[in-house]
């Protein structure tokens, strides 16, 4: 009996870390017979079952949500302690409005979205106590993954930021610094009639495109001055 119990404790477990689209919240489940312990949905692998299939099955049983189409085999966090491996696949993009319904009886008591920044990273971390009014021990099963999860999210946000197009001010020569040539060419001075000749001279202290209709424009100074009372008195 003791050998069988030891064997069960070494069977690998697989599950998922489910994130909302903004990657600010993660879904945790609370066991039915565990008073106040929250963790990620997961469970032991069956014979001849792949890690991915095990994760999909366990998440479906414990939450009622099918992650099969969202699971990426190479996107996971894993930890090993006391000879047991736990691997959690990261599933991002799950709406906060999702209705979860466990399919197993007397296994999952509660499901809840928790802000990732409020979760503790070790048993003496009082972050959850201050922000959630919950003791760190309430997240005993989640703690080993929190720090790595935050790092993964930071890296993901950095990658997404690097992929976003960046816009810069148009240079005097008509190009956009730091932009691909294909985007800058539409602002090249050669694209305007007259090319660089349309830019005002540097000595004028102004820059910009001068339309053809303005090139011969000038003020008729004398009539303007005649309208000024002070100017007429000086001539008297």
TrEMBL record:
Domain Nudix hydrolase: 9-140
Pfam families (alphabetical): NUDIX
Chief site of localization: cytoplasm
Keywords of this entry: Cytoplasm, Hydrolase, Manganese, Metal-binding, RNA-binding
Gene3D superfamilies noted in UniProt: Nucleoside Triphosphate Pyrophosphohydrolase (3.90.79.10)
Residues spanning the membrane: none
Molecular function as annotated in GO: 5'-(N(7)-methylguanosine 5'-triphospho)-[mRNA] hydrolase activity; metal ion binding; RNA binding
Catalytic activity field: a 5'-end (N(7)-methyl 5'-triphosphoguanosine)-ribonucleoside in mRNA + H2O = N(7)-methyl-GDP + a 5'-end phospho-ribonucleoside in mRNA + 2 H(+)
Recorded superkingdom: Eukaryota
Keyword presence, Metal-binding: yes
GO biological process: mRNA metabolic process
Entry annotated with the keyword Cytoplasm: yes
Essential cofactor(s): Mn(2+)
GO cellular component: cytoplasm
Location of the protein in the cell: Cytoplasm
CDD domains: NUDIX_Dcp2p_Nudt20
Membership in a protein family: Belongs to the Nudix hydrolase family. DCP2 subfamily.
Stored PANTHER family: M7GPPPN-MRNA HYDROLASE
Protein name per the record: mRNA-decapping enzyme 2
Organism annotation: Sinanodonta woodiana
């Amino acid at each position: 009996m003791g050998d069988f119990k030891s064997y069960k404790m070494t069977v690998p477990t697989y599950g998922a870390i489910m994130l909302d689209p903004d990657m600010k919240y993660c879904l945790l489940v609370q066991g039915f017979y565990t008073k106040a312990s929250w963790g990620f949905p997961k469970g032991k692998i069956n014979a001849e079952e792949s890690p991915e299939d095990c994760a999909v099955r366990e998440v479906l049983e414990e939450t009622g949500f099918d992650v099969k189409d969202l699971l990426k085999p190479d996107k996971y966090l894993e930890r090993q302690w006391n000879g047991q491996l736990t691997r959690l696949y990261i599933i991002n993009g799950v709406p906060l409005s999702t209705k979860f319904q466990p399919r197993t009886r007397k296994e999952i008591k509660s499901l809840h979205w928790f802000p990732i920044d409020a979760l503790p990273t070790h048993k003496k971390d009082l972050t959850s106590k201050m922000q959630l009014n919950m003791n760190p021990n309430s997240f005993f099963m989640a703690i080993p993954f929190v720090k790595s999860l935050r790092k993964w999210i930071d890296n993901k946000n950095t990658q997404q930021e690097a992929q976003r197009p960046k816009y810069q001010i148009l240079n005097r020569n008509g190009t956009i610094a730091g932009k691909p040539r294909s985007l800058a060419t539409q602002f090249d001075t050669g694209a305007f009639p007259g090319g660089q000749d349309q830019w005002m001279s540097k000595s004028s202290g102004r820059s910009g495109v001068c339309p053809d209709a303005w090139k011969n424009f000038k003020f008729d100074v004398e009539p303007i001055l005649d309208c000024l009372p002070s100017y007429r008195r000086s001539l008297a």
